[in-house]
Amino acid sequence: MIKLKKISMPEIFLVKTQLPENLGAVTRAMQNFNFKKLSLISPEFSLNHEKIRPVSAGADEVLNNIKIYDNFDSAIKKINILIGTSNRIRSIKQKEIDFNDLIKLLYNTKIKIGIAFGPERSGLDNNHVALCDYILKIKTNNKFSSINLSHAVIIVCYEISKYLNKKNPDENSNNAAKKEDLLNFLVLLEEDLDEKKFFLVKERKKIMVQKIRNIFNKLELSSDDIKILIGIFKALKKTNK
After folding, report:
1. How many domains does the chain have?
2. Domain boundary among 134, 161, 188
3. Which of 87, 117, 156, 185 is a plausible cystine mate for 145, CB 3.0–4.6 Å?
4. Is residue 4 part of a domain?
5. Contact 22, 51 (CB under 8 A)
6. Who's near 223: CB < 8 A, 6+ residues apart?
7. Is residue 170 one of the residues assigned to a domain?
8. Which of 196, 183, 171, 199 is nearest to 105 (CA)?
């Protein structure tokens, strides 16, 4: 008899959502496919907006448990692996992941996975992408690739829901560090680089910080890796005094 294994349901992150109707439609889509964790980062409207609940069509289980954050870094701290969604070409390059590989990650219930969707007007920017481990693209018409936010969410939820209670295709032993640990290390590093006058041209600092974050994020570091890096960093700081 084949033993079935449940997948770890990811948390959905909506960044700077602009239209309250889209939030309502997203909550409905999530509850359709049994997704429960939804976080908003700096939405451009109040959660009391009159257009949200009618469009949500009774998706109260999702709507009533929304978490709201002021910034992206705070929202993703407890996440181990972050998947960004985008059909745009970005200057920050990340590894692309398809739904099959995403499902393999979700079979590891020891890690927390988040899927981030950017604002309707522009999608995720380079600051967000630099902290994503992978980019997930929904295959569309190359000449007309922009998808409505709620439509993108429901496609992702549907694709993941197809694998609920199916045989685990590939056991994953990933022990990825939480974003909180990575961010703590990056803050130490960036502050020290600032002190050492590494960012010589102030106008270029933002881009350099993005690139540095992207370098470390690509390494797929574990919690132990982060501890070692912080230990090395502190030891080097002592020797320089």
Report:
1. 2
2. 161
3. 87
4. no
5. no
6. 175, 177, 178, 181
7. no
8. 171
